[in-house]
Design a protein that fits this description.
There is one protein chain. With 425 residues, the protein is mainly α. It has one domain. Helix content is 52%, strand content 11%.
């Protein structure tokens, strides 16, 4: 019966579903907005554990050896991942250095370690201390682990420098590619639902109690809970995260972050992102002038990639998220499914804009040959990194379920953040 099935709430539109068992490999999608709810996976924990162990080994290799070696006029420089951050620090760009080392080394390493801490005991039918909090943290860090973006930046740097000097690919590049494949496969195979349900069963539709109660889904473990009448300060019974029928002050926080990103978008595109010194002559490049230089050098595919990731994507995120915020505040009821799809795109593509920052870090460590050739980050790079981070935070602060809420009849009687879903009869 429907009421005996585990309950699952769509985070994008708030539709309540009764979960049923599907054949392995089949994906369940929300009947209202089309968002992916869950995928049935065979031996999810065991297979993801094997891939995570392989990724941990490759992570060490990728950080221990150089990924590229740059040779010019008899001088040679080898670049490592940590070396690229160190080069930024040496150029007094400590903020960029922190961003690079956090997104490429610290967060991915933490994610690997936390997942091993959780999955190894779970494979043996045990639960490690702190599993609930640590697995939640590992899952949330996935967005900020940008190893694949860094690899793409390495490839762009390779193409950019290959016509200027001799470039040798190091073992770290191959290990890094393998690391990304293992991480992507592990994330695809691991069924978060299976992990959380092993730790504590999911509430059923019947357990939600009487009809017309406000229900909420935990953003950490997806447990569905019927909130008390006031719905304030209630915690998830499984992972202890604070529950809200809707994200508090979602519109205000999203607007604040979006406007800050819009302000910084101007200096990010006007100020130079890097300065290239060649035989004593210095030339400052903005993002657009760098794209033009790539086109003039005959590197049209690379130029299009950099232009799309560094110019088009941030601008479309600013415009798209602004459109969603305005549509919610004006109470638009049309094209809800399309607007939800737009939000999913905005949420997923934003991280790829960091490719320019990673490329600058790679060039800074490789091209450091004194007066012969040198590349240094410019003030526009920090502004651009802030734009990428702020737009990602703005997208996460936005509450997509507001798109599906009925608009308030009176601002005095209803919150601007919408009306929460109530458990149907």
């Amino acid at each position: 019966m429907e009421r005996d099935r585990p309950a699952f709430l769509c985070h994008h539109c708030g539709t309540l579903h009764g979960v049923r068992r599907l054949p392995f490999g089949v994906t369940a999608s929300c009947r209202t907005c089309g968002a992916v709810l869950y995928r049935e996976r065979r031996s999810s924990v065991e297979r993801a554990l094997a891939l995570t162990l392989a990724a941990a080994v490759l992570f060490v290799v990728a950080h221990a050896f150089p990924f590229l070696t740059f040779s010019m006029e008899g001088s040679t420089r080898s670049g490592t991942i940590l070396g690229s951050a160190a080069a930024l620090w040496a150029d007094d760009s400590w903020a960029l250095a922190v961003v690079v080392v956090m997104l490429v080394t610290v967060i991915p390493l933490g994610k690997l370690g936390l997942e091993l801490w959780v999955l190894l005991p779970l494979w043996k039918g045990r639960v490690a201390p702190g599993t609930f909090r640590l697995f939640a943290f590992a899952d949330k860090s996935k967005t900020w682990a940008m190893t694949e973006v860094y690899l793409l930046a390495v490839l762009v740097a390779y193409v950019k420098l290959s016509d200027l000097a001799s470039i040798t690919v190091g073992p770290a590049l191959w290990a890094f590619a393998g690391l990304i494949l293992c991480l992507a496969a592990a994330d695809n195979i691991l069924d978060r639902r299976a992990v959380w349900w092993r730790l504590q069963p999911q509430n059923t539709m019947r357990a939600l109690g009487r009809p017309n109660r406000v229900v909420a889904a935990c953003h950490t473990c997806d447990q569905v809970v019927a909130l008390p009448d006031d719905g304030h300060g209630y915690r998830c019974p499984r992972c202890t995260a604070v529950l809200h029928a809707r994200k508090p002050r979602a519109l205000a926080r999203s607007w604040a972050l979006l406007l800050a990103a819009a302000v910084l978008y101007v200096p990010a595109n006007i100020l130079p992102v890097m300065t290239v010194t060649s035989f004593g002559r210095a030339q400052a490049d903005t993002i657009l002038s760098g794209v033009i230089a790539l086109v003039e050098a005959g590197m049209l595919p690379v130029a299009l990639l950099v232009f799309f990731a560094s110019v088009t994507v941030p601008l479309l995120k600013l415009v798209g998220l602004g459109f969603l915020l305005v549509s919610v505040q004006l109470g638009w009821t049309g094209k809800r499914r399309d607007r939800t799809r737009l939000y999913r795109i905005i949420e997923q593509v934003g991280r790829w804009s960091m490719i320019d920052i990673f490329m600058i870090a790679i060039l800074a460590v490789l091209v450091d040959l004194g007066e012969i050739a040198r590349i240094e980050p410019g003030p526009g790079a920090l502004a651009f990194a802030a734009v990428v981070v702020l737009t990602m935070l703005a997208a996460r602060a936005f509450e997509p379920r507001l798109i599906w809420d009925r608009p308030p009849i009176s601002t005095k009687k209803a919150s601007a953040d919408g009306e929460p879903l109530r458990h149907p009869a």
